Amino acid sequence: MGEATDKLKAAGNKAAGSIKEGIGKATDNERLEAEGKAQKAKGTAQDIAGSVKGAVGDKI
Question: Is 60 helix (H, G, I), strand (E, B) or coil?
Answer without folding.
Answer: coil
